[in-house]
Specification:
This protein has 222 residues and is mainly β. It has one domain. It is 12% helix and 42% strand. Strands 1, 2, 3, 4, 5, 6, 7, 8, 9, 10, 11, 12, 13 and 14 form a 14-stranded mixed sheet that branches. A hairpin with a 4-residue loop joins strand 12 and strand 13. The radius of gyration is 18 Å and the shape is globular.
């Protein structure tokens, strides 16, 4: 039997476990409840006073130390009652059930929850989350096609993007937003959601017809 001192020492060692070097290059499909363009990118405050987002990632290449994370799909579901930086958010990670290794599961959770630090938004968002829900290992259908990308978790999440169309000519628009100092993406294709909804006990919203982006992102840490 371990004494309380021994147990405390082991907990300390686990807490202080070194974070390995990691990298991710991913197709990034962002949807939220804001108006087109999302004013959070410019002023920090959402269109309607609160923020709900569903974000899909197809990891093209990735590693967590020596562990490979290539060709894995992940979906982040977020909800904040006010602006992101004002906190009290809820976050849940949906991870493809094609992952068989526990080490890969742990690596994805560490990165996407912000525990693995690094650049990008994961570690920045972490302090704004009050309710970090248990991750779910699910069947994710990810279709990467720029402004027409989509992803689904059958019976739970349904997201489909569509392009803006010129109302006069009917031509599809080529709309981009550039943020040289952006902490998620520097350049993104702007789109809108044809469908954007989630239905769980803790996260339940439908913001179809609102803002969407597609980009290719690269993150690393710690």
């Amino acid at each position: 039997m371990k004494t309380s001192i021994e147990s405390g020492s082991m907990q300390g060692k686990n807490k202080d476990k070194a974070i390995p070097e990691w990298t991710l290059k991913a197709d990034y499909i962002e949807t939220c409840n804001c108006d087109y363009g999302c004013p959070c990118n410019f002023t920090g405050f959402p269109s309607n006073g609160f923020c709900s987002a569903l974000v899909g990632y197809h990891i093209r290449e990735g590693n967590y130390g020596r562990l490979k994370l290539d060709n894995l799909d992940v979906v982040d579901a977020y909800s904040w009652p006010k602006a992101i930086h004002e906190g009290n958010g809820t976050h849940q990670i949906f991870i493809t059930n094609k992952i068989s290794e526990q080490e890969q599961k742990d690596a994805i959770i560490d990165i996407f929850s912000g525990k693995a630090k690094g650049n990008g938004h994961f570690a920045l968002f972490a302090p704004t989350i009050k309710y970090q829900l248990d991750p779910k290992y699910v069947d994710i259908h990810m279709n990467v096609d720029g402004r027409k990308s989509s992803f689904t978790v059958p019976g739970v999440i349904d997201v489909k993007l569509e392009n803006f169309v010129n109302p006069v000519t009917g031509d599809e628009q080529d709309t981009k937003i550039q943020l040289p100092k952006g902490f998620i993406w520097k350049l993104a294709d702007a789109a809108k959601t044809k469908i954007m909804r989630i239905s769980t006990l803790s996260l339940n919203f439908n913001h179809s017809g609102k803002n969407a982006f597609y980009s290719v992102v690269e993150f690393q840490g710690p």
